């Protein structure tokens, strides 16, 4: 649960800062969040490090929620 909150807060903070300076557009955000979702899936499937496996679901769900928010922006 702590990992999910930290991931969500960090993604939200970066998105707000970059959105404020108009550096990110919707098409870039969608691509970035899709890559985060793929990294979350890869973290759950990899056998090398327990840390990535332990936090893989938090990364995956945060990327999914951020992607849903990104596709609903104007």
Structure report:
With about 70 residues, the protein is mainly α. It contains three helices and no strands. The protein is elongated. The N and C termini lie far apart (about 30 Å). The relative contact order is 0.19. The mean pLDDT is about 80.
Give the topology.
Elements: H1 2-20, H2 26-45, H3 50-71
Give a summary of the structure in a few sentences:
With 74 residues, this protein is an all-alpha fold. It contains three helices and no strands. Helices cover 82% and strands 0% of the residues.
Throw out a few tags for this protein.
mainly alpha, 74 residues
Order of helices and strands: HHH
Largest sheet: none
First CA to last CA: what distance?
31 Å
Helix-strand makeup class: mainly alpha
Number of domains: 1
Question: What fraction of the residues are assigned to beta strands by DSSP?
Answer: under 5%
**Rg computed from alpha carbons, rounded to a whole number of angstroms:** 13 Å
Number of extended strands: 0
Shape: elongated
């Amino acid at each position: 649960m702590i990992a999910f909150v930290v991931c969500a807060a960090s993604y939200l903070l970066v998105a707000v800062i970059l959105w404020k300076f108009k550096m990110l557009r919707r098409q870039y955000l969608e691509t970035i969040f899709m890559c985060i979702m793929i990294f979350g899936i890869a973290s759950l499937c990899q056998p090398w490090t327990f840390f990535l496996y332990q936090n893989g679901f938090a990364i995956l769900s945060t990327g999914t929620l951020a992607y849903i928010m990104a596709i609903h922006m104007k």
